[in-house]
Amino acid sequence: xxxxxxxxxxxxxxxxxxxxxxxxxxxxxxxxxxxxxxxxxxxxxxxxxxxxxxxxxxxxxxxxxxxxxxxxxxxxxxxxxxxxxxxxxxxxxxxxxxxxxxxxxxxxxxxxxxxxxxxxxxxxxxxxxxxxxxxxxxxxxxxxxxxxxxxxxxxxxxxxxxxxxxxxx
Length: 169
Description:
The protein is mainly beta. It has one domain. Helices cover about 10% and strands about 50% of the residues. It is built from 2 helices and 12 strands, in the order ββααββββββββββ. A 5-stranded antiparallel beta sheet has the order 8-3-4-5-12. A hairpin with a 2-residue loop joins strand 10 and strand 11. The longest helix is centred in the N-terminal third of the chain and has 11 residues, at about 20-30. It is globular, with a radius of gyration of 15 Å. The N and C termini lie far apart (about 30 Å). The model has no long low-confidence stretch (mean pLDDT about 80).
């Protein structure tokens, strides 16, 4: 992560999650992002911790090949916060890496014969960052206890209905 603070400080309090440095740069960075990534990154709820469409607290569930040089990652909702799951489709993928503490790393070659890998060891998303990258963008996500990185030409984020009997919104 280049800009988001995973160990920020507010007064005397340390260890604070702070997307502010990223959000301050986002207006300039957004103009350099491809259209789908720009729309997703600049959505007002994207980094709003109390927002129903915030990345924070979603759980990576599965990464799946969606075609030649395409990858789809499904994120499961958190019943107390989200009313929907999130599916992010990455087009023109040039790099995929998934690291889980104490379990090692996965890359695109780790996708099984069916073209999918279960991501249940990653825990909840803490923060994410979408940055311009030569030929597209890079989407990096910090999770508990791992990280995901996808470098691609562009991405499309779609919120989809979730079955959540505990959902109280």
